[in-house]
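User: Round two. Same drill as before: sequence, then structure, for each protein.

Assistant: Same drill it is. First protein:
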Amino acid sequence: MENEGQIKLLVLVTTVIILLLGITVVVLFSFFQKKKVGYIAKQREVQQQFEEELTKSKIEIREQALQNISWEIHDNIGQLLSVARMQLNIIEASLPENQQEKISETNALIGSSLQELRSLAKSLSPEIIKNLGLIDSIQMEVERFNKLKFIKTELTVINTPLLIQSDHEIILFRIIQEFCNNTLKYSKGSTLNITLTYFDDSLQIIAKDNGIGFDTQDKNKQLGIGLLNMKSRSKLIGAKLELTSVLGKGTQLDIKYKLPEILIESFNG
């Protein structure tokens, strides 16, 4: 009986030890698994931060390049055209009246070109966009397209506009500008409608043309770069971007931008 009791005790102790070992293994496995998951998540976060910083740097470089082009157009090319126009005025005044007509036409063309270049310089300058704001900047592009008869363009604003930080407005404007440029280059459409709908804490932008559309799976390099630019910009400000297109019916850009929580709290406060 004594031996039997010792055997039972030994079995019990052995079972407890095995259970404790099993629990220890499970706990250690769970611990290291969590550490592994945490490490992977941290690596992903670091990679994402790196990609965001890289995208931000690229966009800043592009904006600076656009600023430089804007200055070049406004200061140098604009000045040269102004001088050319003045010289034409002098020549025109010295010619007989029957020979002045062609000079007047050329002068008018230079005047129109000068006005268009100044308008283009404004649309390229981040500082002017920052000063004008999103709505007026888009309206400026709309007026430029309509004036030059590129495409019949219309802007609609629904509800009271929100106060959006200027850096985000510049990015939203550049996305719309990219879409509009692609519309002019590829759509062969006759109308382009841009709608800004403001909600309490968000903004939805829909830009739509009635062009030929395209296959979204198409490997066209230029289209791909344009879409990539729009998507990378939208990610930088936490906006959701969707581009849909139907062959023969046109293309639509849909941007959903949510106001950062810190701004919502300041409005509500």
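Second protein:
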Amino acid sequence: MWQQALVCNCNYFSSSSKPSSLPVPLPLLFHSHSQILAKPPRRRSVNTTPLIVSNEDCVVRTSTVCHASRRKTNVTATSSSEDDDNLRRVLQYLLWVAEGVYVLYLFLLPYAPGDPVWAISSDTINSLVGLSLNFFFILPLMNSVGIRLIDAPVLHPISEGLFNFVIGWTFMFAPLLFTDHKRDRYKGSLDVLWGLQMFLTNTFLIPYMAIRLNEADSDYPPRERSQLGSVMTNGAPIVGLIGGAICLISGLWALFGRMDGNFGSIRERWNFLISYLGSERLAYAFIWDICFYIIFQPWLIGDNLQNVQKSKADIVNYLRFVPVVGLIAYLLCLNVDDEL
């Protein structure tokens, strides 16, 4: 009990008294032996006043714990921020490397199937012109109902289907780019970017994906959406329906289109597709485009789920990983009122 009181008095003081001195008083040393035996010295009592801990002391000790906790939280937050910055830099590095490989391997080097840009053949040029004229199957469908302003070039339905499938998917990226909350980090024109993407696909989308990872520039004010951006955003559901329909028609056209043109059965068309991918640079590049779109679609949608109607956010979050379908779901469920 004595030791406990001593320890407590070393840490706290009662509001009514102070702790007593422990040594025996000096006058007691000069008393005789008999006096000591006759009348034991009166020992000074130890202060037994109940320990009272003031609110001030509690506050001090509590605040000390809080400071330690806060320091630990700050260290954790700093470490997490550094990890995010490192991940962002790694992703940017990988994207710029992918851009270099994409341009060099698919456009300039002779190692990929087909001819590089600097040695492109006349047959490839004619095929590109024909595919462009059959954009979204407009001319073939017009010719099929008797409207012949221009005769549609007759190409293999597999090549037409693959071309329009990629272009239809690219078409639906427009509202997604114009509603991207990181779009202002790209200082160029989104109108021009998307227009070039329609022709050269990931040649321009990959750099955008890298640039949007830059840190936000507080000195750069947010830009107003362009007229094209407003149209695409306001008409996002229509864009989704059109793009989705084109992708569906492209698949059906590749399998069943021009059945009277002696392009063979489904099995023969599949064999043509394998040969086409292994001999034509354009077709081979489309496979790369599809692979990149499979990565970029869920990435962009996941970063912009706040643009989706709250009641549909969970559905879009699951469907974003499904090629084409996830982008259609995003455009159909986009909260247009908040975006305009």
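The mean pLDDT is 83.

User: Perfect.
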